[in-house]
Amino acid sequence: MKDVIDGNQAAAWGARLSRVQVAPVFPITPQTEIIEVLAKWKSTGEWKGEYVQMESEHSVLSAAIASQATGARTFTASSSQGLMLMHEMHYVASGMRLPLVMVNCSRGLAAPITLWPDQNDIMALRSSGWIMLFAKNNQQVIDSVIQAYKIAEDPKVQVPVIINMDGFIHSFTNEPTEIPSQSKVDKFLPKYRPKTFLDTKKPMSLGVPVMKGYTEFRSQLHKAHLNALDVIKKVGKDFKRSFGRSYGLIEKYKTSDAKIIFIALGSLCTTIEAAVDSLRKQGIKAGLIIIRSFRPFPRKEIKKALGKCNHIAVIDNNIAPGFGGMVYSDICTIVDNKKVANFIVSLGGKHTSRKDFEEIAKKTLKKKDLYWLL
């Protein structure tokens, strides 16, 4: 069925349709509505899972790790300072190879305090060992939650997944969104049958202390991410066959003949698409590469999509003070940084318009002012 829902409702629907068994929760703006929707469904019996109210975000992820370790399909969500309070436990979840799924509603980090979004919170997890998927719109939120369980639970992966949406822009904006039927999701996403889990009848340890063997564990986690590159593509193709919507590691928009290519992720991409269309009407062949999977990082796919383009504008909705944009640094591992311009925009939700992106494209083509903090 199709309904007009916001991103928070989309995330909750993704969890419900995935038949999540446990959801440890703690409220924080702007993700609180996700857990409020789950609480409502729990009270009406529409969702049969365990709703566990915790005392902090650190406790939330600790409880999520515990429930997933016992073999229960687990979901949670957070935002901003809450995501930072969980930080220690993110490394525990990935190190224990637990296929849990969470949603983050990006919000600028204090201080000073803001309720509007940028992606510094989620970017703090880029080395945590979690698969990181970014949503462009609310449809991608619900679809990505469902796909995330199939990706995470794949025997070749067994790594937690976080789906990022931009707070307020996604979380509180209503869009027409297709809500898949439960029967279709059940066919796409089988019942969770973990091979390794804590069982009192067969005692074992997870996350054990190691000394000399630590390198091997980290190596295995890295290999799991490399495996995930193919698994994400396969799950995306399977999803298209079941639901008609296509997903991969990246999304290309008018790149085949582009002389200037934007690279970005998240909600800004919809505005950049409008800028690409406007630039082409002005005779400027622009294109856009949307990064969906930031970790694992799809080097091969991005490099192929860039082709021989010599003018690349990387749009960062984050900043590493003293360095610059974090997506920019990764792109410079693929192509000569002489071809790449970095533009840091919309920090704390500051509006960046279609015309701003058109100006960015023109400056990039002229190789003028190739670093902006807008």
> Span between N and C termini?
40 Å
Kindly state the percentage of residues in helix: 25-40%
Extended strand count: 15
Q: What is the quaternary state of this protein? A: single chain
In the CATH classification, which architecture of the largest domain applies? Answer: 3-Layer(aba) Sandwich
Structural class: alpha/beta
Morphology call: globular
Number of domains: 2
Report the CATH topology name of the largest domain.
Answer: Rossmann fold
Can you tell me the CATH class of the largest domain? Alpha Beta
| SSE string, helices as H and strands as E | EHEHEHEHHEHEHEEHHEEHEEHEHEHE
Strand content: 15-25%
Q: How many H/I helical runs?
A: 13
Q: By CATH's scheme, which homologous superfamily of the largest domain applies? A: Thiamin diphosphate (ThDP)-binding fold, Pyr/PP domains
Residue stretches low in confidence (pLDDT < 50, at least 5 long) are none
Radius of gyration: 20 Å
Biggest β-sheet description: 6 strands, mixed
Lateral strand order in the biggest sheet: 9-11-10-13-14-15
Q: In words, what does this structure look like?
A:
The chain has 374 residues and is α/β, with parallel strands linked by helices. The protein folds into two domains: 2-243, Thiamin diphosphate (ThDP)-binding fold, Pyr/PP domains (Rossmann fold, 3-Layer(aba) Sandwich), CATH 3.40.50; 250-373, Rossmann fold (3-Layer(aba) Sandwich). It contains 13 helices and 15 strands. The strands form four sheets. The protein has a six-stranded mixed β-sheet with strand order 9-11-10-13-14-15, with helices on both faces. A five-stranded mixed β-sheet has the order 4-5-7-6-12, with helices on both faces. A two-stranded antiparallel sheet has the order 1-8. α10 crosses α13 (354-366). The longest helix is centred in the middle third of the chain and has 30 residues, at 214-243. The chain is globular, with a radius of gyration of 20 Å. The model has no long low-confidence stretch (mean pLDDT 96).
